[in-house]
Design a protein that fits this description.
The complex is a heterodimer of chains A (383) and B (135). With 383 residues, chain A is α/β, with parallel strands linked by helices. Chain A has helices at 23-38, 59-66, 82-95, 127-130, 137-152, 156-170, 184-189, 217-222, 252-263, 280-290, 298-303, 321-324, 333-345, and strands at 5-12, 47-51, 72-76, 101-108, 192-194, 197-198, 208-216, 228-235, 272-275, 359-367, 373-382. The longest helix of chain A has 16 residues, at 23-38. Chain B is mainly beta. Chain B is built from 1 helix and 8 strands. The longest helix of chain B has 8 residues, at 18-25. The chains are: A alpha/beta (383), B mainly beta (135). Chains A and B meet through helix 4, helix 5 and strand 5 of A and strand 2, strand 4, strand 5 and strand 6 of B.
């Protein structure tokens, strides 16, 4: 379903603190950046994809603001995993002949006072059974971490190793919000937010955004820019399951196999992985669920330096990820795809560029591990 | 019973959850069970999420459970912004469902697997907030 499409443009907004920008402006600047990267203009776009962070009426407000002429729109709301899923949605729309040049945007400004997408709504059926107890985003992920530790013996030091690996990558990224390399002790000594998660187990809160251009293979051939093949896509929400929630795994358990099957590749083929990293526990559970190690062995796997580029078993988040670089509008899905595209084009920082990077994985997580979440996996190939 | 005097935010009572909230005013946990497939449902709703039947009956749960997971959140938001540290948890009821709640009345840290018992903090004449303390 996806082999016929390419990612032809990818752009990460350089801003991390944008008090003088509107949310719509961030989306539009990211869109123009991605178009420029692909060598097209917004006038070429005929499909538009955005999610809950888009201001106002979402796709209608933003398409209007940018002056788009469209034959296809998609407004998906599965939190930070939305843009990752939307690469698959764009592939399906292109396959169906509904559009040929798709634009995906994400953006917002939680750091400087923007509205927060995904905030609890009183009309939600779960409203008075969760938020009423003081559920926060870190609190929900902390519940997952605590249970994972209980069942598998995962330690705070092992979780911290994930932040350490991200920080070793971020020090090469001049735009990273936290460019300083940190140690296990730094993580453990940072203030406890919601135990067992310390402040440095959490991602950064940044203004900013990003955009992607997804096109048919025919369109890609006409462009001068190196594109990236979309080899496989899988997505699955994981829900609170009628009060039988199991906090030790994520929806990657289902989205991963779907993406691998569609791509026809194996784990050993993955040269680089962007793994959604809202918190260190998000990465730990996800790499287990994707099958890079056995369930419950994630702690030992990451403590061994597996995630460190360029030579670890599974170099991850070489831009510094959401943990250190950027988590625009509290949603890190688009930056996951963008860094995977950089790796496949050989355009990551030389210190963290994976040699001969041919197959990359990008995984998005949205919502909250502590109740209900979106999960989306992409497998991408060098062209 | 909540030694920290935790906030007691107002509930939004949707029509399909009235049975539960009425139960809280009597300090009992009213759960739904599907008449067709016997599934115990959490949180309350109008259809069975397992077999999709709409014949659901209310029954009174024991109020007993065990800690499935917990975390001490040091700084909350919204109603909990000034609450100080508080314990967010999942409790697995004896009847099966795991529900999000607060743990109150613990000296020191709770442990996963600890037995707990329901306690209720009055919100208003139509509702009370279900929390759990040591059994």
């Amino acid at each position: 379903m996806t082999a016929h499409v390419r990612i032809a443009g990818a752009y990460e907004h350089p801003g991390r603190h944008l008090p003088d920008h509107s949310a719509a402006q961030i989306h539009a600047e990211a869109a123009i950046g991605a178009c420029a990267d692909a060598g097209i203009t917004l006038g070429d776009v005929d499909g538009y994809f955005c999610s809950g962070d888009a201001p106002g009426f979402g796709s209608l407000s933003m398409a209007d603001y940018m002056g788009l002429t469209l034959s296809y729109v998609d407004h998906t709301e599965i939190g930070g995993s939305s843009p990752v899923a939307q690469v698959g949605h764009a592939a399906a729309a292109i396959a169906a002949g509904k559009c040929s040049i798709a634009l995906i945007t994400l953006g917002g400004k939680p750091r400087t006072g923007g509205t927060q997408a995904g905030a609890p709504r009183p009309d939600a059926p779960e409203y008075s059974f969760e938020g009423i107890y003081g559920l926060t985003t870190p609190g929900g992920y902390a519940l997952a971490a605590q249970r994972h530790m209980h069942e598998y013996g995962t330690t705070a030091e092992q979780l911290a190793a994930i932040k350490v690996a991200a920080s070793k990558h971020a020090k090469h990224n001049p735009q990273a919000f936290l460019p300083k390399e940190v140690t296990i002790e730094d993580v453990l000594n940072s203030p406890m937010v919601s135990d067992p998660l310390h402040r440095l187990d959490c991602c950064v809160v940044t203004d900013g955004g990003g955009a992607l251009i997804v096109v048919s293979a025919e369109v890609a051939k006409r462009l001068n820019r190196q594109s990236v093949a979309v080899l496989g896509h899988g997505e699955s929400p994981k829900l609170a399951d009628n009060g039988r929630i199991d906090l030790t795994y994520t929806g990657a358990r289902w989205s991963g196999p779907r993406a691998f099957e569609e791509a026809g590749v194996k784990h050993k083929d993955i040269d680089y992985a962007s793994i959604y990293d809202s918190f260190t526990i998000t990465v730990l559970e996800t790499i287990e669920d994707l099958g890079f190690c056995k369930k419950g062995q994630g702690g030992a796997y990451v403590a061994d330096g597996a995630l460190e580029a360029p030579d670890g078993a599974l170099p991850f988040n070489t831009d510094g990820g959401g943990l250190c670089n950027n988590h625009p509008t509290n949603r890190g899905g688009i930056t996951k795809v963008i860094e995977a595209v950089r790796q496949l084009r050989g355009e990551a920082h030389p210190a963290v560029q994976v040699k001969d990077c041919e197959i990359a994985l990008a995984h998005g997580t949205g919502g909250n591990l502590g109740n209900r979440m979106g999960s989306a996996t992409l497998i991408l190939g060098r062209e | 019973m909540s030694q920290n005097q935790l906030p007691v935010p107002a509930a939004v009572i949707h029509p399909d959850a009235r049975g539960y909230w009425e139960g809280t005013t009597r300090e009992v946990i009213v759960l739904q069970r599907c008449d067709d497939c016997d599934t115990v449902i959490w949180f309350p709703r109008a259809i069975c999420p397992r077999c999709w039947g709409s014949k659901l009956s209310n029954f009174e749960a024991s109020g007993r459970g065990t800690v499935y997971s917990w975390t001490r959140t040091n700084k909350g938001m919204a109603d909990y912004r000034d609450a100080g540290p508080y314990i967010l948890a999942y409790v697995e009821l004896a009847e099966g469902p795991r529900l999000m709640t607060n743990l109150v009345g613990f000296d020191g840290d709770p442990k996963i697997g600890d037995a707990v018992q329901a306690t209720f903090d009055k919100i208003d004449d139509e509702s009370a907030l279900l929390r759990f303390g040591p059994a």
